[in-house]
Amino acid sequence: MSTAPIVQPFFHADSSTWSYVVRDPDSHAAAIIDPVLDFDAASGRTGTASAEAIVDYIDAHSLQVAWLLETHAHADHLSAAHWLRSARFPRARIGIGAGITAVQKTFRPIFNLGEHFPMDGSQFDHLFRDGECFDIGQLEAQVIAVPGHTSDSNAFLIGDALFVGDSLFMPDGGTARCDFPGGSAATLYHSIQRLYALPDATRVFVCHDYAPGGREHRCETTIGDEKCGNIHVRNDTPEAEFVRTREARDATLDMPRLILPAVQVNIRAGALPEAEGNGVRYLKLPIDTI
Predict the structure, then answer these.
(1) Contact in structure between 90 and 277 (CB atoms under 8 Å)
(2) Can you give the residue range of the structural domain that contains 54?
(3) Which residues contact 215 (CB under 8 A, 6 or more apart)?
(4) Residues 163-222 pLDDT 10s
(5) Considering the entire predicted model, what is its pTM?
(6) Nearest to 179 by CA among 254, 118, 231
(7) CATH number of domain containing 42
(8) Within 13 A of 257's CA, how many CA atoms are on the CB side?
(9) What is d(CA 101, CA 106) in angstroms, rounded to the nearest whole number?
(10) Among 125, 124, 77, 84, which Cα is nearest to 104's?
(11) Strand, coil or helix: what is 273?
(12) How far, in whole angstroms, is CA 253 from its chain's centroid?
């Protein structure tokens, strides 16, 4: 089987999100990781330009999309997975970590979604277990649960390429916040140790990059570079030091701009709420809750 997938990144500037197409070089099989649905909070309008750029790439290379993979239920952008499957790739399966059920149980009462909203992850086609393996053509893929940022966070090791979600940023960006419901800095520390046990040459692809210091946006590093240079957690960083640093940083952060619309869509696998009697879909805005 192939060990080095072809990875094509796509950058969503409004949310500083990296999405990826991962291709098997020996076949036409591919997966899409963390696709973004454009959303303007001021007008409430959605858009598909970012997702269509991914579709154009898929079409240009005659790829067959087997999976639409979510590293977690994102709080900073709406997922385009549902639109991509509905509009273009009906045979693709939407997959996320089994921890999504805990996220749904946390947020169903916050958004008052009611008893009709299932909390068993059935909105997704597949819930990945820690250590589960699957194939993308001739590529071997493995799921590594990395809770800490969220309860459902997974990394996907596809050949020699590791898609870490929000567990790690580029070395000069550190790590993701751990103050969301279900988050834990200590848990994230232990999750990162699992990633640091991989070979140093493992390619690492991040979900976000905020370009510290005004440098250009980047998406790729290595496990070796993270272990040596991550500003929050190097290979020799004690757990207590990381927890102290992470929690102090989290205390200074505002809530993500799109957390309320994003989470209620993303726990539905990217599907928008059903239209009401007037034919309009509505997102909820809980007051003084988050």
Answers:
(1) no
(2) 6-266
(3) 172
(4) 999 999 999 999 999 999 889 999 999 999 999 999 999 999 999 999 999 999 999 999
(5) 0.96
(6) 254
(7) 3.60.15.10
(8) 8
(9) 9
(10) 124
(11) coil
(12) 20
